[in-house]
Amino acid sequence: MTRGPTLPAHRLPYLPKPLDAFNAAPADESRALLLNCLRSLHWSRRLAEHRPYPDLDSLLAAADEAAYDLAPGDLSEALASESLPELPEDTYSAAHTALSAAHAAYEARFGHVFVIYLGDCPREEALDRILEGIRSRLTNDPEEERVIAAEELRRLAGQRLSQLLGDTMPHPPAAPPRNAAGHNAPAPGK
Asked: How do residues 8-46 score in pLDDT, each as one tens digit?
């Protein structure tokens, strides 16, 4: 069988990637997007001022570097906007009670919400990981815990940036800001 002439491969027009749109966005829009991920005005401004980023890895590296330079007030601002990760829909009310009690003890001891990066932890293991983390970190002294919380916050911010500006979304959604309504998340410290 003889075939006719081969047609050239179809090429799609260039479609901007999320990072391209972020790099080209007005400064106030880029800062707002960053604030949603980083939860600190200073951290967000610093990253927005250094645009454009050639790739996501460069942005994530800049976010990490800037996180290590956060002043105590900037860290407190970022922590104040955090919330516990949402629990699966079918979580028992006793689990919500246990989590609320553990979180209240943590917040009373350290003065800020408990933050933890769950990475690729399966949702069904999230509650156990959170409770284990709170209980083990309650034994830390306040300065040691602040360093650990800052590291967890840095990792959460990287995950959020990857979700919003990466080409793929391999991770589950990050927790909404503390003041955002979550239909199945207990109110922190309540």
From this structure: 556 555 556 899 999 999 999 999 999 999 999 999 999
Task: Note whether 164 and 33 are within 8 A (CB).
Answer: yes
Mean pLDDT of 102-114: 94
Q: Which of 66, 59, 67, 64 is nearest to 21 (CA)?
A: 59
Reported as a single tens digit per residue, the pLDDT across 119-174 is 888 888 888 899 999 999 999 999 999 999 999 999 999 999 999 998 753 433 34
CB-based contact 149:112 (threshold 8 Å): yes
Is 163 in contact with 173 (CB distance < 8 Å)? yes
Q: If DSSP states are collapsed to H, E and C, what string results for the chain? A: CCCCCCCCCCCCCCCCCHHHHHHHCCHHHHHHHHHHHHCCHHHHHHHHHCCCCCCHHHHHHHHHHHHHCCCHHHHHHHHHCCCCCCCCCCCCHHHHHHHHHHHHHHHHHHCCCCCCCCCCCCHHHHHHHHHHHHHHHCCCCHHHHHHHHHHHHHHHHHHHHHHHHCCCCCCCCCCCCCCCCCCCCCCCCC
Distance CA 170, CA 162 (A): 9
Number of residues assigned to the chain:
190
